Amino acid sequence: MEYILLSLALAAVAAALLLRRPRIGARPDLSSQIALISQRLEGIDARMTASQSDSHALTADLFGRLGEVAQATQAVAEQARQFTSLQELLRAPKARGGLGEAMLEELLGQILPPRSFARQYRFATGAIVDAVVFAGGRKICIDSKFPLSNFERVVSASSDTERVQAERAFAADVEGHISDISRRYIVPDEDTLDFAVMYVPVEAVYGEVLRLKHRGRSLFEIAMEARVIPMSPLTMYSYLQTILYGLRCLRIEEDAQTILRRCGRLTQDIERFAAEYDTLGRHVSNAYARYGEASRTLERLRISIDQIVDLAEEEPGDAGSPTATAV
Hints:
This protein is α/β, with parallel strands linked by helices. It is built from 9 helices and 7 strands, in the order H-H-H-E-E-E-H-H-E-H-E-E-H-E-H-H. The protein has helices spanning 2-20, 27-91, 93-111, 149-156, 160-185, 203-211, 219-225, 233-313, 322-326, and strands spanning 117-122, 128-135, 138-143, 192-199, 213-214, 217-218, 228-231. The chain is flat, with a radius of gyration of 54 Å. Mean pLDDT is 74; it is low at 21-28, 82-86, 88-96 and 319-327.
């Protein structure tokens, strides 16, 4: 808009100059001035057009970037909303247990074969464990219902005193949970191993379990004495990989035993075949010997028959006929 007003002002000034100059003897100067003013106006128009194009491009780029910023802001808001929902989900004890169980189930399904583990396994005592892994004819029990309520107090504590109190309560919860796992899920009479696994679904919480103490003793030491092994998602992944390799070794050993049993049966079959082959060889040898004797007997019979035929073909008077002798 400013460029348009400037053009109009320049045109007005040019017109005023032309009107004020005398007409007589000024036509050559007037023509050159008009041409000069036209060139200047054309240059101004060209600059205005280029400036307008640049302004449109800048405006389009600006609106595009504003759109990208709006999308990014919306994505961040959505993630924040989901995070808030996850926090609310983790606050409910029952939902926390379900979340840990789902994470454990997903981890087991990704690593182990379907037939090598079971969910919600019930013992004869009536106890139900979240997951059982079958390895070498034994059962490895895994519990995923980890207590997290007091850990939230540790995180949200506003002072050192509140944090220490929350840590003590959290350590007491973990100690009680370890005792429950040891009492309920280590059942040698039902072919379980002499230890069980306490699955901690969050790495940060697992670090606190390794760090904290209860009544002067570390939680990890308490767990080891109770034959309960705490595991985070990362350590559980490594442990399941080890079990997978063990299952493969057991499968190889079972296959080797099967091959040895089949080789034993094959050896027996070969021995039986060798005995039958020897018997067949003897029969063949006897048959060949008898075949030779029969061939010789047949040859003698053939010679005898030929002699008889020759005698039969001779005429009765040929041997002592006087006529034949004179000839």
